[in-house]
């Protein structure tokens, strides 16, 4: 509840046009912030690709030392980026503007307790293998990596694709934008386990949630989602949102 209250307060600090959308994200962000805060209370965290959202500033609000790394080239970030990032800076978040795939993380060795990236990897046009090796270098011994992604074979997609509904991106996002920033490749549970093995992570967990339904345009879907979410979390491979959690081998 303390995290949720902090996020409600922070959302009101954003430009008016962003506030409603951010408040719809509070359940998701409270879950993610609560998870990393339990892993490393008061520790250092670097968030990759978090844009102008609430996650990194929420981590700072609960006492973590937060670094936000992003190229801020998405249309949403360009619209209100400076005003939104002012919220981050005034709450102590360090901002690093860089393309992590081409330029790397820019973090020192053994400098972070937690490194996260949520709903970003599926947008990358090049392999994250080299970047994830750098993640392991930047983590302290025993440090945690948390990766959140959409599930390419979620239950909803298994049901709707045979009916002809399964596009990752709208036509406008792909065709009308000078640079495509939509989904390139969505992973599944097996893909996340592959990444964990390649990174050498230990104490690996795969978790599933169903955040997409909480913000659905239909009220009936929003009402039923909490019930479905509780049932489906026991079966991550069916959930709309997947998390890979693992740690660097402790000394």
Task: Quote the CATH topology.
Answer: Rossmann fold
Q: Strands across the major sheet, in which order?
A: 3-2-1-4-5-7-6
Which residue ranges are poorly predicted, with pLDDT under 50 across at least 5 consecutive positions?
Answer: none
Give the second-level CATH assignment, the architecture. 3-Layer(aba) Sandwich
Rg for CA atoms: 18 Å
Task: Categorize the overall geometry.
Answer: globular
Name the assembly state. Answer: single chain
How many domains is the backbone divided into? 1
Structural class based on helices, strands and sheet pairing: alpha/beta
**Helix amount:** 40-55%
Mean pLDDT: 93
Which features would summarize this protein structure in a list?
7-stranded mixed sheet, alpha/beta, 7 strands, 20% strand, globular, Rossmann fold, 11 helices, 251 residues
Can you walk through the features of this model?
It contains eleven helices and seven strands. The protein starts with a helix and ends with a strand. It has helices at residues 2-11, 16-24, 26-39, 55-61, 75-90, 100-103, 129-138, 155-160, 171-175, 189-199, 219-232; strands at residues 44-48, 65-70, 94-97, 112-118, 139-150, 202-209, 241-247. It has 251 residues and is α/β, with parallel strands linked by helices. It has a seven-stranded mixed β-sheet with strand order 3-2-1-4-5-7-6, with helices on both faces. The radius of gyration is 18 Å and the shape is globular. Helix 3 (26-39) crosses helix 4 (55-61). The protein has a single domain, classed as Vaccinia Virus protein VP39 (Rossmann fold, 3-Layer(aba) Sandwich). The mean pLDDT is 93. The longest helix is centred in the first third of the chain and has 16 residues, at 75-90.
